[in-house]
């Protein structure tokens, strides 16, 4: 549009110049160059008009698209707001359902517990009924047996009644004898009570002696347990000392072998290269490697497990003598092997 306005201004200026030139007689006719320039400006004006028309059509189409998109955005915003409301309602509904589900689960748990208790009661009642049925059957059988026995006892009663009359006569005779026997029984009871009193005193004395012996045996057992624990600790400490001595002897042998292999000049040269003294260099050569450290750690763990095993054997029930003896003999054999190894190492070092 600015280009169009500039071109229109130039055309108006050219037209004004041409009119003023036609009016004035003194000025000559316009030249060919001005005509060409006028034609070029007219062509440019047409092109700019065409471009303006094109751009206006595109602007209109873009405006229509923008309007459509704005309408779509409004529709989508309305949908989003509806969806947000729906989502909020659904969340509230889900929370309500969760609370109801929790309440229902709790109610179900309580109902299950009551149902289980009722089932247990029903089972118990069924078992009780079956037991009662079996007891009723047994009672019926006993009743039949009792009726049979009753008839037998009635017959026996008649016989006994007859015999009783006969025995009443004998009873009178026996009553006199019973009086004599009662007198003798009282004398026997007096003598028996005296003897029982003496026996009670003897049993009390025996119980006191047995309690004293039990206390002595419990003290002896405690002393035995402390002795076994102390023996196990001493064995473990002596084994550890032998291991350390063996390690020290091996280190001394290695150091001596290294000193024999290296001359004094090479040792001093290595110390000067490392910027340390010869004693520091020997300490560096004597450093224990990782395998030896792991081995010592494993041996320490084994000793700890052995002591725990001894403790378990002492706390276990009887009999535990044979496994305890095997464990102590195992540690003694290990000590014997270590002593032999240490003596052989000391011979070689000497």
Automatic annotation (TrEMBL):
It comes from Nycticryphes semicollaris. One of its GO terms (biological process) is centriole-centriole cohesion. GO terms for cellular component: centriole; centrosome. This is CNTLN protein. Transmembrane segments: none annotated. Residues 1-17 have a biased composition (Basic and acidic residues). Residues 1-41 are annotated as: Disordered. InterPro entries: CNTLN.
């Amino acid at each position: 549009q600015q280009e169009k306005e500039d071109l229109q201004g130039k055309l108006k200026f050219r037209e004004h110049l041409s009119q003023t030139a036609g009016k004035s007689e003194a000025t000559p006719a316009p030249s060919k160059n001005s005509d060409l320039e006028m034609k070029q400006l007219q062509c440019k004006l047409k092109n700019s008009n065409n471009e303006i028309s094109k751009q206006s059509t595109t602007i209109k189409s873009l405006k229509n698209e923008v309007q459509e998109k704005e309408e779509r955005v409004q529709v989508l915003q309305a949908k989003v707001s509806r969806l947000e409301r729906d989502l909020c309602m659904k969340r509230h509904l889900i929370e309500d359902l969760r609370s109801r589900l929790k309440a229902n689960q709790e109610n179900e748990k309580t109902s299950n517990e009551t149902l289980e208790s009722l089932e247990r009661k029903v089972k118990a009642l069924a078992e009780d009924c079956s037991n009662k049925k079996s007891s009723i059957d047994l009672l019926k059988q006993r009743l039949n047996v009792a009726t049979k026995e009753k008839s037998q006892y009635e017959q026996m009663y008649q016989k006994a009644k007859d015999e009783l009359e006969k025995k009443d006569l004998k009873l009178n005779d026996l009553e006199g004898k019973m009086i004599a026997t009662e007198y003798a029984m009282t004398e026997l009871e007096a003598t028996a009570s005296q003897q029982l009193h003496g026996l009670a005193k003897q049993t009390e004395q025996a119980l006191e002696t047995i309690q004293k012996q039990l206390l002595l045996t419990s003290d002896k057992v405690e002393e035995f347990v402390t002795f076994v624990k102390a023996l196990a600790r001493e064995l473990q400490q002596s084994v550890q000392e032998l291991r350390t001595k063996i390690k020290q002897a091996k280190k001394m042998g290695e150091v001596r072998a290294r000193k024999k292999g290296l001359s004094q000049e090479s040792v001093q040269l290595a110390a000067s290269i490392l910027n340390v003294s010869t004693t520091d260099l020997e300490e560096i050569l004597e450093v224990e490697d990782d395998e030896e450290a792991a081995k010592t750690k494993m041996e320490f763990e084994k000793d700890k497990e052995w002591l725990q095993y001894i403790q378990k054997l002492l706390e276990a029930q009887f009999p535990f003598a044979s496994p305890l003896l095997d464990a102590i003999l195992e540690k003694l054999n290990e000590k014997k092997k270590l002593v032999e190894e240490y003596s052989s190492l000391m011979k070689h070092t000497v």
